[in-house]
Amino acid sequence: MHHTIEEVKLKNGARGLLINVPGATVMSMQFQFRAGNRYAKSKDIEQVAHIMEHMAFGANARFRSEHAFESEFTKNGAYHNAYTSDLSMVYEADCADFEWDRILELQKLSICQPRFNQKELDAEKGNVRSELTSYLNDHHRILWPRVQQLLGEDVLTYRQALATISNVTLSDIKNHHKLTHTTDNMRFVIAGKLRGRKSEILRQLETFELPRGERFAVPHDELSGAAPTVIRRKDATNLTFGFTLSLPRKLDNEELDAMQTLNHILTGTTHSRIFGKARAKGLAYSVGSYTGCGFYDSAWDLSGQVNHETAPQLFDIIARELKAVLDGKITDEEIEAAKSFTLGRYQMGAQTVSQIAGFYTHRYFADDYIYDYSKVPDSIRKVSRDKIISTAKSFIDANTWVLAAVSNGDREELIDLSERLTSIFDRVE
Fold first, then answer.
1. Last-in-domain residue among 191, 206, 221
2. How far apart are alpha carbons 79 and 94 in whole angstroms?
3. Phi-psi region of 53 (alpha: psi -120 to 50; beta: other; left: phi over 0)
4. What does the alpha-carbon distance between residue 258 and residue 320 come to, in Å, rounded to a whole number?
5. What average pLDDT does this structure show over 156-160?
6. How many CB atoms neighbour CB 7 within 10 A?
């Protein structure tokens, strides 16, 4: 969908993007604060942000209960949600175009004037406890916080987080909101038919009843490698593994595009180098690779599930294919096929107002960067073989990596699998 984008900086300190989508019949709006788990006052109340997020649409200055607020918000079909990550708390809403101003007003109400009460706190503590408990049954979910810890990130596992829920008081909730919900710490993205409405939108945003505050800094962890680690689970009949390589800097956009192309070549299809070969041999049901940027560092992750008896064969394939890439063995045909796939997904990724808004929120909420959607195709087409190889080598040269797994097996099994990967760290000239 065609759209134009404008960044606005409000007098109250808030910043955000206004995305005009001509002819849109839906309005999408998201508000972000650096208010996630990492900003809890102390580790013993780490889940204060998560619990507060669950209370986001509860009692407020106009409505006495969650039920009353929810009934009013959704009466014309509008959708809303909130979510928390290590760094962020995000409020989001989609609504029909004819009621955008009413929904924006209600969003402002829930963000600025909550009336946290003990009854809702007790209920949401129970709901958060149920949510985290359910994650303990998901081997992929429980794996990655432990990987983060092994690298040196100051985070909790889900089991550790569960233990903090009972410590959170109503005073903690109110203090966390007061500390983090300031206009300088707020970012927003609003997308829809904005022509003729900009002044009213800005007027409403300027009247958010929050203190000025500050934009919180992103915590900086010093990362390092670690020995292979097993998370023992008796119910783990197979091996759920995560192999992550850390680079102590943020990748630039060209490097990110290069790694996206490489990940597709390695694991993106049933005929890819790693996943495709593993599937063809009946070795693994799923294997994927991903690249992401933090504020100070970047990660190259490879994960999957494999039976114990076929794990050595799979890891041999992983090592062999990664080494081949590092040795420059990538064909022009593979690169062009990956580009074609990515261009198709790009074309499919902006068919709704929400998709357009979502494209911008990821980077903008992270570091205020505005990624120009219209330039994406050219960026994809410019990916070169040399950039793919040099970026992959930068992860290898950093030599900061962790292999971890959820398994009912022993550590010796994982050590053996780890040793099958070490050849990729031989210096590649």
1. 206
2. 5
3. alpha
4. 20
5. 97
6. 12
CB 357 within 8 A of CB 14: no
Report the CATH number that the domain containing residue 366 is assigned in CATH.
3.30.830.10
What does the alpha-carbon distance between residue 330 and residue 325 come to, in Å, rounded to a whole number? 6
* Burial class of residue 23, CB neighbours in 10 A (0-12, 13-18, 19+): exposed
Model confidence pLDDT, tens digit, residues 281-317: 999 988 999 999 999 999 999 999 999 999 999 999 9
- Could you give the CA distance from residue 297 to residue 244 in angstroms, rounded to a whole number? 12
DSSP 8-state symbol, 373: G
Helix %, strand %, coil % of the chain (to 5): 50, 20, 30
Q: What are phi and psi of 344, to 5 degrees?
A: -65, -45
Tokens representing 326 are 């590092």
Q: Could you please report the per-residue DSSP string of 197-266?
A: THHHHHHHHHT--------PPPP-PPP-----EEEE-TT--SEEEEEEEEESS---HHHHHHHHHHHHHH
166 and 234 housed in the same domain: no
Mean pLDDT of the chain: 96
pLDDT digits (tens, 9 = 90+) for 236-252: 999 999 999 999 999 99
For residue 349, name the pLDDT band (cuts at 50, 70, 90).
Answer: confident
Answer for the pair 387, 235: CB distance below 8 angstroms, yes or no: no
**Containing domain of residue 384, as a range?**
229-425
Dihedral (CA of 280, 284, 286, 291) sign: negative
Mean of pLDDT values over 73-98: 97
380-399 mean pLDDT: 97
